[in-house]
UniProtKB/TrEMBL annotation:
A GO CC term assigned to this protein in UniProt: plasma membrane
UniProt GO molecular function: mechanosensitive monoatomic ion channel activity
PANTHER family assigned: LOW CONDUCTANCE MECHANOSENSITIVE CHANNEL YNAI, OW CONDUCTANCE MECHANOSENSITIVE CHANNEL
Protein name in the entry: Small-conductance mechanosensitive channel
Keyword entries, A-Z: Cell membrane, Membrane, Transmembrane, Transmembrane helix
Length: 405
């Protein structure tokens, strides 16, 4: 058996059907190479998992799908070139264009996966002990992805025969019209850019605005709008342009939380008030959850309508909302216990009514006078008779008038 006898079976002869064998061999080699490269990359990734740096793993994981697709693209394009004599020339030209565009798209896909991997690595903190802020990493990632996509699109247009300079010129002229038509959209875009750059808040922060009815936890910061989850669990969508016209308060970045409560004791406990204030102030200063490096006060404040009022003013170490209320409750409970230990009581609104003796005597005389029955008027007989005669005269006159009628 010689090479001349084996050559026809391998597809290297001059027979018109030998191109099918060649295409089959190319596809088989492509499939085998794809499988081998995939297994090799998996083993390399497994080895790199043991290294300290996460960047090598990120690059290998980003390259796996694009590299395997690139192998298929090259293999199929070679198979198309082998069958060039058997197919239409226009089809062959289309295959060449597809290969060029495919290579550009695969490179862009690899770069996009690298950008996403870098973003994930920075946010997770695997590259350093301190993770990067999610809002910053997300903003940079979006800008890089936009740059990769725009560059890939321009290169593809160039390969398709379009002039990039003409496209850019059209974009410059059309950009003016688009700017007027999409004024609000651009305002939101630049508003989102300012949020990314200035970073007045980030995802997860509790924010509120005294200018508008906006309060809740930031869930997502997009290019056009920001999604906020209110405390009653409703989503609130705020256009980014709004944040450039309002003031935003970020309670999540407070260093402490403040306790400012007023307590009142009875006026009868005035002699005990000074010692009560000293004991409560000592308790506040020794409390584990109160930051005594900040100002704290327990002082008599004012004479209330029914109580002697003093206030407790301090700052907690925690900024957590639930933990803060636990600390505040404990401070008030201990203050109440100190008040009770001194035999004092917390005052509540009261009103006293005083009745004087003069008012009582006057009232008794008024009651005794009004209790006597009124005397009946005396009518004389003469007056009665006169009235009777007058009544009789009136009656007779009325009768005469009725008869005449």
């Amino acid at each position: 058996m010689t090479w001349e006898t084996i050559q026809p079976y391998l597809g290297f002869g001059d027979s018109p059907m030998h191109w099918i064998v060649k295409v089959f061999i190319v596809v088989f080699v492509t499939l085998t190479l794809n499988f081998v490269i995939g297994r090799l990359l998996l083993r390399i990734d497994d080895k790199l998992q043991r290294t300290r740096t996460p960047w090598d793993n990120m690059i290998v994981e980003a390259a796996m799908p694009p590299l395997r697709l690139f192998i298929w693209l090259i293999g199929l394009s070679i198979a198309a070139q082998i069958s060039e004599n058997q197919l239409d020339e226009e089809f062959t030209a289309i295959v060449v264009k597809i290969r060029q565009i495919g290579v550009i798209a695969i490179i862009a896909w690899f770069l996009l996966r690298c950008v996403k991997g870098i973003e994930t690595t920075l946010i997770s903190g695997r590259a350093s002990n301190k993770p990067v802020d999610y809002t910053t990493a997300s903003a940079i990632s979006k800008l890089l992805r936009a740059a990769v996509i725009i560059t890939a699109a321009l290169v593809i247009l160039q390969n398709l025969g379009y002039s990039i300079s003409g496209v850019l010129a059209f974009g410059g002229i059309g950009g003016i019209a688009v700017g007027f038509a999409a004024k609000d959209l651009l305002a939101n875009f630049f508003g989102g850019l300012m949020v990314y750059l200035d970073r007045p808040f980030k995802v997860g922060d509790w924010i509120r605005s005294p200018d508008k009815n906006i309060e809740g936890t930031v869930e997502h910061i997009g290019w056009r709008q920001t999604r906020i989850r209110t405390f009653d669990k409703r989503p609130l969508y705020v256009p980014n342009a709004t944040f450039s016209t309002i003031s935003v308060e970020n309670p999540s970045r407070m260093s402490h939380r403040r306790i400012n409560e007023t307590v009142g004791v009875r006026y009868n406990d005035f002699s005990k008030l000074a010692q009560i204030l000293d004991d409560i102030k000592e308790m506040v200063g020794k409390h584990d959850e109160i930051d005594n490096n900040e100002i704290y006060m327990v002082n008599f404040n004012q004479f209330g309508p029914s109580s002697l009022d003093f206030f407790i003013y301090a700052y907690t170490r925690t900024t957590n909302w639930a933990k803060y209320h636990e600390v505040k409750q404990d401070v008030l409970f201990q203050a109440m216990q100190i008040i009770e230990q001194h035999g004092a009581e917390v005052a509540f609104p009261t009103r006293t009514l005083h009745l004087f003796n003069e008012q009582q005597d006057t009232g008794e005389e008024f009651i005794s006078n009004t209790a006597k029955p009124a005397a009946k008027p005396k009518i004389s007989a003469k007056h009665s008779r006169q009235n009777g005669n007058e009544n009789q005269a009136d009656t007779s006159q009325v009768g005469d008038e009725e008869t005449n009628q």
